């Protein structure tokens, strides 16, 4: 079984759930809990909807897609984790669900640490000193994580609220270009899943928009060319 190394600890220290916690204290707490490190090949399932919600999961390296399937088998992408230290699966310890209602699939060779969900639960034996401060910091960090994820979900709902594929594309562009006149997208397949459209339909519409001079495509970058005309689709 893979073990926690110094590089992993540095990644965990940068994770949102451990923000503001000293490395030495983090190392002591993690090694005092049950944890395991999973290594997954591209396309391998990291966790499934049948798994029990007993762990908080943190990405150490690689990338993964979080998704669920409709009754007809269509995949709906709920999110993509591609930054070391990203946290997922933490909400289930709070809502009381026994099993996940989504699954995770590796998009590349990926390493994930599964930490016992006890780390986010109140501990009656930990009411003073460093232990109490650690728990309080984790709880404060989780509130921030929940708020950011709720905000991100609201942004996605605004994007999916577009009636046509073009409206969804335009909303995605304006929601995600923080600086400059372009947005860097994930792969076409991942973007199509995110927008809940087929990949051929997405590629065709992007091509049409480029031909009409509304945007310019350069690899995974979408440049805004005619901002005023694009805004008509918002």
What do you see in this structure?
The structure is a single chain. This protein is of the alpha+beta class and about 230 residues long. About 40% of the residues lie in helices and about 25% in strands. It contains eight helices and eleven strands. The protein has a four-stranded antiparallel β-sheet, covered by helices on one side. Strands 2-7-4-5 form a four-stranded antiparallel β-sheet. A three-stranded antiparallel β-sheet has the order 9-11-10.
Q: Largest sheet, order of strands side by side? A: 1-8-3-6
Number of strands: 11
Q: How far apart lie the N and C ends?
A: 50 Å
**Number of helical stretches of at least 4 residues:** 8
Radius of gyration: 20 Å
Shape: elongated
Compressed to H and E, one letter per element, the order equals HHEEEEEEHEEHHEHHEEH
Proportion of β residues?
15-25%
Largest sheet: 4 strands, antiparallel
User: Uncertain runs with pLDDT below 50, 5 residues or more?
Assistant: none
Helix content: 25-40%
What is the arithmetic mean of pLDDT? 85
Secondary structure class reads: alpha+beta
Secondary-structure blueprint:
Layout: H1 6-14, H2 23-31, E1 35-40, E2 45-47, E3 55-61, E4 64-69, E5 75-81, E6 87-88, H3 92-95, E7 103-106, E8 110-116, H4 129-160, H5 165-176, E9 182-184, H6 188-195, H7 199-211, E10 215-218, E11 221-224, H8 227-231
Antiparallel strand pairs: 1-8, 2-7, 3-6, 3-8, 4-5, 4-7, 9-11, 10-11
